[in-house]
Amino acid sequence: MQEPTISIIGLGNILMTDEGVGVHTVNEFERRYAVPEYVEIVDGGAAGLDLIPFIEGREKVLMVDAVNFDQKPGYIDTLENDAIPARLTLKASMHHLGLMDVLCIVRMSGNVPKDLCIIGIQPKSLELGLDMTPEIWDKKDALIERIVAKLREWNIPCALRSPQK
């Protein structure tokens, strides 16, 4: 088996409604799509510093998370490379402290991924609850399309496992 060089990480606390959007989206992506063995799909949850091995030394890292863009719920945007820490210092990501710490440690190690990307969605609710709000869950296909588009931009093949409805 080839060592992973690419990480796709779903971030979020699935016990807090829309906060778990990253984990749910990446799990759904993995159910629908096959990727090469050098791509590791990770349920990052609210792991914080435990994410370091999935980021440090990787060629490319793609994360999906709830991000406070100060927009309407369901707004989707992408943060890449140098724009990530700048945006996170504005407390944009719901995991900004843990993710900021992780990115800072990775930078200090000198093993920063060549490409780092967060696909974020503006959450509607961060209250306790296992189900995401309909406004956010209804955007899962758009989030998955963004994942697929980014992988294709990076020349990483991903194939639909079976026809989807």
Describe this protein's structure.
The chain is of the alpha/beta class and 165 residues long. It has one domain: Rossmann fold (3-Layer(aba) Sandwich). Helix content is 33%, strand content 22%. The chain has six helices and seven strands. It has helices at residues 21-32, 52-55, 83-88, 96-109, 134-137, 140-153; strands at residues 6-11, 33-34, 39-45, 60-66, 76-80, 115-121, 159-160. The strands form two sheets. It has a five-stranded mixed β-sheet with strand order 3-1-4-6-5. The protein has a two-stranded antiparallel ribbon with strand order 2-7. The longest helix is centred in the middle third of the chain and has 14 residues, at 96-109. The protein is globular.
Task: Characterize this entry briefly.
This protein is 33% helix and 22% strand.
Task: Give the tags.
single chain, 165 residues, alpha/beta, Rossmann fold, five-stranded mixed sheet, two-stranded antiparallel sheet, globular
CATH homology group: HybD-like
In CATH, the topology is named: Rossmann fold
Q: Give the overall form.
A: globular
Radius of gyration: 15 Å
User: How many DSSP E strands?
Assistant: 7
Number of domains: 1
**Residue share in β-strands:** 15-25%
Residue share in helix: 25-40%
Give the neighbour order of strands across the main sheet.
3-1-4-6-5
The appropriate CATH architecture is 3-Layer(aba) Sandwich
Structure class: alpha/beta
Q: Give the biggest beta sheet.
A: 5 strands, mixed
Q: How far is the N terminus from the C terminus?
A: 32 Å
Order of helices and strands: EHEEHEEHHEHHE
The CATH class assignment is: Alpha Beta
Mean pLDDT: 88
User: How many helices?
Assistant: 6
Low-pLDDT residue intervals, each spanning 5 or more residues: 89-96
